[in-house]
């Protein structure tokens, strides 16, 4: 049960995916290969299994790319959120 | 499977079997009998009501089990709308309709009290299925303080009862769940703070306002105080709604309604988004929030939306689960790809694997691992939780299917 907690990378923000908007256009997948991978239909799937897959943890080094993904998502489905 | 919401008549608990607080004014209590039993709506100071609610430990009875007082504390300002949610999308749930049919005045009292305490001037709305809505309308005509309360008929869809879906419906959009980065208590109907409680929660609030937190806690356990309603149906039992003390053992509840324990092999607790509990675990306590967080075992059994479906010894749990999954897959609100595409696939894979036609578990396992958390609402997660518990609880049935037989006789 503590497996994920122990291996959790230092996280600076979460990338929130609004699933009602996302249409598997894949821009985020190209930009964030370490964070996301495509599922069988091309929808982004968190590369590591966190509990909440609508809010994917972003390590500090990944922030610039995550910002690009937010800007480039054609469906405005992505947003960056500070950690609670 | 079709919804039974509009078709069946609400069932009162058999008199004398279990203690009843919510139905204490009797069958179809009108205003006169309601007041004769409970007295008029009290006028507690705002701070007092919220303080009593906090002390009572009352949790939401719609399935989320969130402490009622915390929702009030989370309000970003006076709510523009206060909603009594009785939309009850669960096909097996009758508790909200039953409550609205027999104790509508308690629900209205709760709404009126909350409004006085935290949202003077708020728009008050009751959302319910057609029969429940009718009962509330009738009750409103009987009282002077009901003039401002709006009654809306809920869409008859599984996900339409989800809080953000109800709010979307009231804002004029289709009643489908919305992505909700911001809590409704901050921004809901008309982008203003919104307070939404299940109708049963409001009825408890009406009683707490009258009798106080200590009285509320005189039933139930320390970690699950008060009583809660369950809709019980399935093999060997007449469909009924019962009120039981929080923390009751599932076995006690079954005994109280006269169910022969040896005739039951498992129970689906919490509704279609709930979990199967094997007969051997019926000693578990039904609680709002299990300590172990996963809904069964030592931490208790999650009561969820208060639904219990009994499965007799001669029924096949995998067949029943497959048909529920089929229904749930079709009820996806069509918005989120991983849910829209994933759930039909899960339903199909589950049927193939659980019937024994497909012996490779990896396909269904992959879906069970990748679908959760990837929707705007809890629907994909709840659906997966049902599938996961079915495979665990009916492992024996799985073996029978592999060898070409089934509890229901004949080939799987
Ligand atoms: S870029 Fe946007 S629409 Fe495309 S897959 Fe990513 S989140 Fe979905
Ligand atoms: S997760 Fe499924 S049911 Fe929920 S909003 Fe998305 S598509 Fe609809």
UniProtKB/TrEMBL annotation, chain A:
Q: Note one Pfam family from the annotation.
A: Fer4_15
> What are the start and end residues of every segment in region (Disordered)?
39-62
Q: Which SUPFAM superfamilies does its entry note?
A: 4Fe-4S ferredoxins
Question: Under what name is this protein listed?
Answer: Ferredoxin
- Where does this protein come from, organism-wise? Herbiconiux sp. A18JL235
Q: Lineage in the entry?
A: Bacteria, Bacillati, Actinomycetota, Actinomycetes, Micrococcales
Automatic annotation (TrEMBL), chain B:
Could you list the residue ranges forming a coiled coil in this record?
none
Output the superkingdom of the source species. Bacteria
Gene3D superfamilies noted in UniProt = 3.10.20.600, NADH-ubiquinone oxidoreductase 51kDa subunit, NADH-ubiquinone oxidoreductase 51kDa subunit, iron-sulphur binding domain
Annotated GO molecular function terms are:
4 iron, 4 sulfur cluster binding; metal ion binding
**What InterPro entries does the entry give?**
Nuo51_FMN-bd, Nuo51_FMN-bd_sf, Nuop51_4Fe4S-bd, Nuop51_4Fe4S-bd_sf
Q: Where is the NADH-ubiquinone oxidoreductase 51kDa subunit iron-sulphur binding domain?
A: 321-401
Residues covered by the NADH-ubiquinone oxidoreductase 51kDa subunit FMN-binding domain: 54-206
- Keyword annotations: 4Fe-4S, Iron, Iron-sulfur, Metal-binding
Q: Which family does it belong to?
A: Belongs to the complex I 51 kDa subunit family.
* Name this protein carries in UniProt: NADH-ubiquinone oxidoreductase-F iron-sulfur binding region domain-containing protein
Q: Which organism is it from?
A: Herbiconiux sp. A18JL235
Q: The organism's lineage?
A: Bacteria, Bacillati, Actinomycetota, Actinomycetes, Micrococcales
């Amino acid at each position: 049960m503590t497996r994920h907690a122990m291996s959790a990378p230092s996280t600076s923000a979460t990338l929130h995916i609004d699933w009602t908007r996302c249409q598997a256009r894949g821009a985020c997948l190209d930009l964030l290969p370490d964070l996301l991978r495509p599922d069988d239909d091309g929808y982004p799937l968190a590369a590591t299994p966190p509990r909440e897959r609508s809010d994917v943890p972003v390590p500090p080094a990944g922030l610039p790319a995550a910002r690009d993904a937010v800007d480039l998502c054609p469906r405005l489905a992505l947003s960056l959120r500070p950690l609670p | 499977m079709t919804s039974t919401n509009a078709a069946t008549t609400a069932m009162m608990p058999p008199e004398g079997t279990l203690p009843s607080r919510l139905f204490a004014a009797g069958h179809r209590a009108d205003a006169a009998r309601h007041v004769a039993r409970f007295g008029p709506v009290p006028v507690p100071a705002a701070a007092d009501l919220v303080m009593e609610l906090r002390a009572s430990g009352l949790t939401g009875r719609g399935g989320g089990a969130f402490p009622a007082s915390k929702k009030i504390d989370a309000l970003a300002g006076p709510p523009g709308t206060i909603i009594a949610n009785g939309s009850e999308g669960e096909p097996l749930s009758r508790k909200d309709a039953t409550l609205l049919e027999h104790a509508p005045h308690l629900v209205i009292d709760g709404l009126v009290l909350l409004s006085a305490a935290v949202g003077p001037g708020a728009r008050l709305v009751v959302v319910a299925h057609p029969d429940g809505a009718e009962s509330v309308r009738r009750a409103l005509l009987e009282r002077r303080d009901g003039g401002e309360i709006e009654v809306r008929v809920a869409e008859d869809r599984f996900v339409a009862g989800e809080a953000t879906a109800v709010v979307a419906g009231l804002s004029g959009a289709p009643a489908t769940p919305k992505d909700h980065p911001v809590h409704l208590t901050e921004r809901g109907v008309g982008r203003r703070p919104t307070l939404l409680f299940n109708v049963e929660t409001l009825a408890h609030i009406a009683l707490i306002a009258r009798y106080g937190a200590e009285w509320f806690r005189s039933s139930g356990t320390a970690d699950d105080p008060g009583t809660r309603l369950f809709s019980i149906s399935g093999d060997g039992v007449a469909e009924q709604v019962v009120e039981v003390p929080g923390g009751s053992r599932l076995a006690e509840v079954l005994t109280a309604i006269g169910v022969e324990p040896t005739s039951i092999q498992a129970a689906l607790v919490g509704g279609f988004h709930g979990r199967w509990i094997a007969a051997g675990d019926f000693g578990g306590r039904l609680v709002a929030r299990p300590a172990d967080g996963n809904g069964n075992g030592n931490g208790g059994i999650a009561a969820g939306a208060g639904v219990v479906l009994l499965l007799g010894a001669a029924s096949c749990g995998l067949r029943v689960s497959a048909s529920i999954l089929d229904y749930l897959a079709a009820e996806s609100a069509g918005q989120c790809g991983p849910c829209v595409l994933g759930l039909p696939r899960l339903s199909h894979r589950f049927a193939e694997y659980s019937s024994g036609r497909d012996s490779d578990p990896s396909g269904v396992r992959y879906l069970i691992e990748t679908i959760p958390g990837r929707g705007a609402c809890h629907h994909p997660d709840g659906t997966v939780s049902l599938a996961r518990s079915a495979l665990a609880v009916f492992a024996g049935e799985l073996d029978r299917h592999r060898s070409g037989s089934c509890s229901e006789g004949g080939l799987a």
